[in-house]
Amino acid sequence: MIIMEPALDKAVKNYKEWVRCNSCWSKIEQKEPTNFYITQCGHVYCGRCIVQAEKRCFQCGDINVISLPVREPLSPQIAHYFSDVDVLRDKAEQADIFQKNQIKLYLQRAHEVENKYQALKQEYMANADHMKKLHEKYNKLKMITLMMQKENKKLLSKSGVYTPTQYRTPPDQVNLNSSYKNDEGFRVPTITKVPKSAGYYSASSSGSNFSNYQTITPKSNYSRYSK
Q: One of this protein's GO BP terms (predicted)?
């Protein structure tokens, strides 16, 4: 469980009792506080001494140092310098527990994803192997079918039997201009060039030779119709 952090100004001890200027050693006044500054090298100077300390630190000798004001509410960048060590330790422990828990959850999820990936990979490999076998079987059946078709053509050519594709039926030719009236008075068209038999004729027959055809006038019984 994560404990909500208290406000930074409440977590800070009474630093005004022990903070001193590292040059003139003046302290922060309670009633009329003097501006104090903390440098990037970790030293504290009052408002009078910071002018020279920024050019060259009196303690470590760093030059052109950057400083931040020490005033409430303390900036988060420097608040931990003035915070109670016990509070900082508790926060560090909470942060450690939180980070370890998040890493544990992440690793657990990564392990689950890895297991699913391996299962899907095995399933894919099995399906790929099955498809390969089906493809090989299909190719074998295709070769057998082609061989049987070739063998069938050879047998038909030797026996002299024509396949149905070598035959065709002649189209009926209807002459609408040539017609007559039957006994009932109806006009009936004459159908010409109809084969004498109901059989087929060879495709090699000449298109202009209709000696095997005769003109037939259809006879229909129209007696059931009234004039």
A: reciprocal meiotic recombination
